[in-house]
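hi got a favour to ask and not much time before my train. below you get a single protein, a line of residues and a line of whole numbers that encode the local backbone shape. could you go over both lines and see whether the tokens make sense for that sequence. a few lines back from you is plenty, here it is:
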Amino acid sequence: MQFKVIVIELCVSHLLQPLFVCRVRRSPVYFGDFKISDLNNVQRRKRFWKTAHETVHKYKKINKDNQCKIRRQRNKIKSLNSLVDELLKEKRISAAQSIESLPETKKQLLFRQLKKGKSNKYSPELRCFALTLNFYSSSAYNYVRKIFGKSVLPHPRTRSKWYSV
């Protein structure tokens, strides 16, 4: 009898102990997670050095990608400006054929393409054009939306909301 009681007490005391040990401090993963005291430990110092290099490398890559993007945009602007100058020299277009001479719908399409979707409101002329184009041919609507960019013409769900209102 006495033996059974001891075994039960050992089992109960074993159940009260935690099955796993929680770590008090996570290992530093990000550059800001390190503390000055981590530099005293050799392994943590190496981890700090590696994390710092990875962080610097990551931001250098982001910076380089952004600089390439800006350079491509500037080259595109230069090429478009040179195209307009060339057309003016060859007298294929005149100053009278500027943006102001375009119909309102074409102006709205052009400005929305230049803005790339920074505005979510569509003018009444553009709404009318989108609904009419979709009425005549949904494949033509999808083609125009694909070619000029998705921000120029509204998403089909937006069109369906216009019909329901």
